[in-house]
Amino acid sequence: MANRELDFRVIFAALRRRAEKIFGRERNYFPGRPSGLSLSPSARHFVDYDVAPLALRFSTASEDVSRWQTITRAKLAELAGYRREPKSPEIVHECIFPLPGELSRRVIYLGARTGVDIPVHLVGPPGPQQRRPVMICLQGTNSGAHLSWGEARFPADFALVKQGYDLAIQAAKRGYLAIAIEQNCFGERDERQISPRSAAPCVDATMHAILLGRSLIGERCSDVSAVIDWLEAEHESLGIDMKNIHAMGHSSGGSVALFTAALDTRISAVLACGCIGYIRDTIARRRDEQGQNVIPGILNWLEMADIAGLVAPRALVTVAGETDHIWPAAGCAAVIAEAKSIYAKHDAADRLLCVREPGGHKFRSDASWQAFYSVVSGPQG
Question: What domain count does the chain have?
């Protein structure tokens, strides 16, 4: 009886502590400590953010912007663990499916390197086409690339499809060959090889990439560039215009679109929404269960305005929510305002745009396309 009573007390205490943490009322289990001590791990980091070197931050009007971009792009690739393979990927399997609205979906699995096969979905009208622009479509932290052609496979998908996350359908209807890439850790590329695995889908891959001196976002950008390598090799048979390779995404998908454009100059325009803010004000100051955008050592060299500046003079458009709890519009606007100085050195300040919209963290399809087309001439523009 005494053991059962003890078990009940332990369970009750554990539940009470969890509830206290959830509601921000966690009690002090270590009374008697002197006040004013810096004991939380973040206290060390917050102080160091203020003196972070940012050694490659673009800051002087006299700086040679092209030379700065070359040096900085190489450093970003090194830090992120971004790599380009010596040869283009090859198709290891393919099939095709019809879609509503006189569209089709060609599914290919690209063998990018040993251990990396990338599911890629080409959405557009069937049959040969001439000189189409390409839109690379990148979903955020959700159930997978299937949302890009409006397919709901999981309960939460139905709401997302209604909310306008069918990026590939939107792009195809506007005259693009839409390329929906299944990102590492989502959909078909969810972790299945280790057991047990963490509840959050990206944290294991993040930690394992760090062991190799890489980052998850660097690996994702490498995958996008591998797909572009394949597009480049097959551009004639695909009927695409390699001078108009665009990329779009929201949240973590927007981050991959932005960072890949910073690293791979073959992307001529990028629509990256719900994903921009100063590192020291966003991912560095909140909980991070997955580390999707963490690049080891980045604050020794760069901030987000520099990442945006690496896209210059190519078009960069972003739409941000005023009350976005992850990437608020005020922070996004501040980053874009700083990056304007880099774009101005290219006489391309009109190629960089931040649009602020009411509301929180969500993709706004109409506002995003309108903003994008105000800067970039679309297929029908």
Answer: 1
pLDDT at 6: 61
Tell me whether residue 364 is in a domain: yes
Domain presence at residue 55 = no
d(CA 316, CA 262): 10
- What domain range is 70 assigned to? 66-375
pLDDT tens digits for range 160-211: 999 999 999 999 999 999 999 999 999 999 999 999 999 999 999 999 999 9
Look at residue 233 and tell me if it is in a domain.
Answer: yes
CATH of the domain at 210: 3.40.50.1820
d(CA 120, CA 109): 6
Does 112 map to a domain?
yes
Return the biggest CA–CA distance within the chain.
80
Q: What is the pLDDT of residues 244-277, one digit of tens each?
A: 999 999 999 999 999 999 999 999 999 999 999 9
